[in-house]
Specification:
Elements (H helix, E strand, L loop, with lengths): L1 H17 L4 E2 H4 L8 E8 L2 E8 L11 H8 L2 E5 L8 E7 L2 E9 L2 E6 L2 E5 L9
Antiparallel strand pairs: 1-4, 2-3, 2-5, 4-8, 5-6, 6-7, 7-8
């Protein structure tokens, strides 16, 4: 009698973990075309460093935003529930002057945050901003 209950519990647990589908950055946010300028503010230990990627005035020969866009689109993400924390390193990105997303680094874990929703990054890497 114990075995059917155990098997049912294992099936339920596997079913719950199956709900966490991996998605790519392309499914989460679409950069507008053309994306000629991206602003980034890197915050760490109470200090802000600002980066400007691309030209503010559209320049069809400036391809400097492509590495950042490719980096984001290649992220593997899983939606999750986590609490906001202080002290994490954070890259905040704005596209065309509009806040787009943040990339939060908490030691060996990283999260993309869009509209208050957290997505754990399965393949964390440093954004190509410098």
């Amino acid at each position: 009698m114990k075995y059917p209950v155990f098997i049912f519990a294992v099936i339920c647990a596997l079913g719950l973990t199956g709900c966490q589908k991996t998605i790519s950055g392309t499914q989460l946010y679409s950069f507008p075309e053309p994306t000629g300028h991206i602003s980034c503010t890197f915050t760490s230990q109470g200090q802000d460093i600002k980066y400007e990627i691309g030209a503010v005035e559209y320049d069809p020969t400036d391809f400097s935003t492509i590495p950042l866009i490719a980096w984001f689109y290649n992220l593997n993400l899983i939606k999750c529930e986590v609490d906001a924390v202080e002290g994490a390193e954070c890259y905040s990105f704005a596209v065309g002057g509009v806040p787009a997303f943040s990339y939060e680094v908490r030691g060996s874990e990283a999260y993309v945050v869009i509209d208050g929703e957290y997505y754990r990054v399965n393949n964390p890497s440093t954004p190509p901003v410098g």
